[in-house]
Amino acid sequence: MKLNELAPEKGANRARKRLGRGVGDGTGKTAGRGSKGQKSRSGGGTRPGFEGGQMPIHRRLPKRGFTNIFRKNIAIINVRDLSAFESGSIVNAEALLMAGLVKGRVDGIKLLGKGEIEYPLAIQVNHVSKSASEKIKSAGGSIEEI
To answer: Dihedral of the CA atoms 76, 77, 80, 83 (nearest 10)?
Structure first.
């Protein structure tokens, strides 16, 4: 069997029904749309969500919540993620971005204490949790909050 010999099974593909091709056709004249009314017209029909003039559900339900325009986007980094860096290296926003641990535009970086670290690192981030701070210092590293 070759690609040019492939074909669908006999009877699998049917021709589409051609509407409005004469009265003797069965679907002639009104083309299966009935006579008169909004749905029989060209371009007829209602928009999505229309409920026949009844107040639609998306207008009946109350609005909820609000968007804080002053929200800060803080990236979260864990101690276990710092294994991507070599011993003694400086870990700052640029280094985290290059390592792929922080993506996109962020307003700050926070270091959390999940995981362990065995070697010293010099860390420069915006916020540090107490447990992360203890783990970094016990490994011989330093932390600078910017």
So the answer is: 160
Identify the CA nearest to 124 among candidates 82, 83, 84: 82
Q: How far apart are CA 128 and CA 84, in angstroms?
A: 18
| Fold assignment, 74-145 | Ribosomal Protein L15; Chain: K; domain 2 (3.100.10)
DSSP category for residue 25: G
DSSP labels for 31-50?
TTS-SSSGGGSTT-S--TT-
Sequence ranges of the domains in the chain: 74-145
Cα radius of gyration (the chain): 33
Inform me whether the pLDDT recorded for 102 exceeds 90: yes
pLDDT (tens digit, 9 = 90+) per residue, 12-21?
A: 999 999 999 9
